[in-house]
Amino acid sequence: MNIPNSNTDKKITVYLIEDEDDLQEALVYSLEQLGFKASGFSTAAEFYRAYAVNRCDVVVIDIELPDENGFSIAQHLRSASNVGIVFATARGDLSDRVRGLRGGADAYFVKPVHAEELAASIEAIYRRIKAAEASAGRALQPHQPEAPRGTGRWVLKEGDWILYAPDGRALRLTMSERAIVTSLFKQRNKPVDRTQLAAALGGGDLENFDLQRVDAVVSRLRRKATAAGISLPLHAVRGTGYQFQT
Questions:
Q1: Any idea which fold 155-244 has?
Q2: What does the pLDDT average to over 2-12?
Q3: Please, what CATH class does the domain formed by 13-140 belong to?
Q4: Where does this protein bind DNA (predicted)?
Q5: How far is the C-alpha of 57 from the C-alpha of 53, rounded, in Å?
């Protein structure tokens, strides 16, 4: 049975993070048979690399993964985007379900997961996201400025995925870069602590979070800006973190 992807001319893209190979393969195959464009990943790192290049519409996450807790992945995604989030896990305790839903998940399934029920949930989530985006677009349309080129100031646009320099040059951000820049923009011209930036990156367990990941993202962003001929006013603040000066 094919479930039609209503209200869209393209297939709904689903990323599945599941480290049990047989289950991952079976769910990806079933979702594709039901009309979705599905891809599977065994680790959070594999997923992040793929998501940075091509975003999905909905991500299905197992909680127990070899390199990162599923709750942390959901927190990271929810802080940086409006992607649909579904948990599919063996953990069925009420406390886990409540934590997952409060942490940003749109739905929570306990294994075994039936593909058609999962597909119906994915479609419902996708429709809600698109309806909310359309509603927000209509509400903002009367006040929408012209393309932010040459405004004389730093501007975040396109859902905070593109940073425009004062001269109009654009820098497209990855998911991690977007999380850092958005946090710095909220407190522009003020130092932002590295732990705050780590939290923006999805470091829910800050005690075990490697703060050098923040430095790595900032360093990569600076190199990318330099390569694009953009002088990025992103400065290290000794003993604190970083500051975006405008």
A1: Arc Repressor Mutant, subunit A (1.10.10)
A2: 55
A3: alpha beta
A4: 144-246
A5: 13
